[in-house]
Specification:
By secondary structure, this protein is of the alpha/beta class. The chain contains eleven helices and five strands, in the order E-H-E-H-E-H-E-H-E-H-H-H-H-H-H-H. The longest helix has 15 residues.
Length: about 230
Amino acid sequence: MTTRVIIVDDQAMVRAGFAALLAAQSDIDVVGDAPDGVQGVELSRRVHPDVVLMDVRMPEMDGLEAARRLLDPPPGVTHRPKVLMLTTFDVDDYVYDALRAGASGFLLKDAPPADLISAVRVVAAGEALLAPSVTRRLIADFARRRPAPRKSRAGLQLNGLTPRETEVLELIARGLSNQEIADALVLAEQTVKTHIGRVLAKLDLRDRAQAVIFAYESGLVAPGDR
C-alpha cells in the first residue's frame, strides 16, 4: 500500500529535497507541496494525504495552527491526516503544542535521510514518532515548566484504567517500544498492542504522542523519571 505525502515548508529547497528523497521510495507517493500553512491546509483538504510533513515556522500561517486545523477539522470535513512536524530546534514550544493538538511526532530537519523515510512509514502505520530521546526530553521539559490544567480530570480518567493498563501507559511515557514493553512486563507484543488500544480508547487519546503528554500532565510520570 502506498503512503500519500504532502510537504509544507516555506523553503523551496527543503520541499524539493524531501520530495525527491521520498518519491524515490516505492511505497511513498508525494502528492503535493505548499509554502505556508494556509496553502498546506487547502492542499491537504484537496488531495487527502496520509501524512503531512509540516514545518513549524512559516509565513501566513505557522505549522501549529495548520496542524490544529487539519487535526480538528470543521463540521463536514472528515479527512484527518497524520501530521509530522519538522523543526530546526530540538526543544520548541510550538512542537509541544502541536503534539498536544494531535500531531504524531516531530523530526529535526537535519536528520539523516533514512530517518525521514522511516518517520513517514512509522507515522503512516499509526505509531507516534517518540523513540528519539530528544522527543521525550522536549515533552518532559514543557510538562515541568507548565501547569497541568487537566490534572484533576486526568486523575479521574486514570482511575478508569486497570493496573496493567496503567503500567503500560507509564512505559509508553518513558519512551519504550511495544517490544520493550512486552519484555518488561513479560507479555506477548500483541497483548501489549491490545492494552495500548484500550488505554487510548478509555482516555480518548489519538495516539502515543498524546498518551505521553497525558501521562506527564496527570502526574503518572514525573519529568526526569527513568
